[in-house]
Write a structure and sequence with these properties.
With 306 residues, the chain is mainly alpha-helical. Helices cover 55% and strands 4% of the residues.
Length: 306
């Protein structure tokens, strides 16, 4: 291995950046790019092994069927966002998409990545789940990542104490704007190309809304349970006005309340998304869009206070 190649490897490990036309590797452009990708991934895997040595990764509960588990987690969200005739294909795709990064599969997952930057980020996701030192300086820890139709989730999922956090649902929500309808056999045209056409600036907000909606449904399976339980975020988010609680009451009672949800979403949210105000969308969809901003602010406050 040449000095230039070693320098590129060190740069990649410390920053996640790489040259799409690697001059340090000789030969034609295609051959050089392929060999550089293999060498950089091999170096990444070796570095991950060294940093994770002596640490044991958490594993999903024994005997847990992860496909069944993932389907149960995302089903409330899918039922709220898609018509009945489209739910089964969407659920079948999502239940195959969830991957928990563990010691048993991390090497395979890193080698399978098409993008070197994604492999680097997933390596850090795995290292931080072990409490090991991440690659690069100033890396912000993450607990999940969506790439195309794959949802990679940290095993910290099984130990989180945040009542309204659900990394699986959050990452699955991002798949909707990454996956075309034809990919899973649904009708597609120029106006309906993606599963959900979500504005770029609203995608993270939407994902937070989806995971919160899923947790509310999980904590209160029946509408009566949701009405009697404490509204999420009422104290954690400093919601002294009761807007969060009012929105959740109207959205989760299972009755028609478009005007009420509309009024509350205007008070709670600083943005004006089309999806939140479209009269033909379901109460669940408006609720997911509306609560996402509140949940993002709550999480930001928690991170700042630590």
């Amino acid at each position: 291995m040449t000095v230039a190649q070693r320098q590129e490897i060190r740069r990649y490990l410390s920053t996640g950046e790489s040259d799409p036309l690697p001059a340090a590797w000789g030969g034609g452009a295609f051959e050089a790019a392929h060999q550089a990708s293999q060498d950089l991934k091999s170096a990444l895997i070796e570095e991950v092994k060294q940093r994770s040595s002596g640490r044991r990764s958490r594993s999903p509960p024994r005997g847990q069927d992860l496909r069944t588990f993932a389907r149960a987690k995302v089903e409330p969200m899918v039922r709220g966002l898609f018509p009945a005739r489209e739910r089964d294909p969407v659920l079948a795709m999502l239940e195959r998409s969830v991957v928990f990064l563990t010691q048993n599969n991390v090497e395979r997952v890193l080698r399978q990545q098409s993008w070197l930057s994604t492999a680097w980020t997933l390596a850090n996701l795995y290292l931080t789940s072990l409490g090991a030192e991440p690659l690069g300086e100033g890396f912000s820890p993450i607990v999940g990542l969506s790439e195309e139709t794959n949802c990679y989730v940290s095993t910290e999922y099984f130990t989180t104490e945040d009542t309204f956090a659900d990394f699986v649902v959050h990452e699955a929500a991002h798949v909707f704007h990454n996956c075309k309808r034809a990919t899973i056999g649904l009708p597609q045209n120029r106006r309906r190309e993606w599963l959900l056409d979500i504005d770029f600036g609203m995608r993270e907000t939407f994902a937070y809304g989806c995971e919160t909606f899923g947790r509310v449904c999980e904590l209160g399976p029946r509408p009566a349970d949701r009405r009697t339980s404490r509204a999420p975020g009422r104290s954690e988010a400093g919601d002294r006005s009761g807007r969060w609680g009012g929105l959740s009451r109207h959205a989760l009672r299972g009755r028609r309340g478009s005007e009420r949800v509309e009024a509350h979403s205007r008070k709670v949210c600083s943005f004006r998304p089309r999806a939140a105000h479209h009269p033909k969308l379901s109460i669940a969809k408006r609720f997911m869009v509306a609560v996402g901003n509140v949940e993002m602010r709550r999480r930001d406050r928690q991170r700042t206070s630590r």
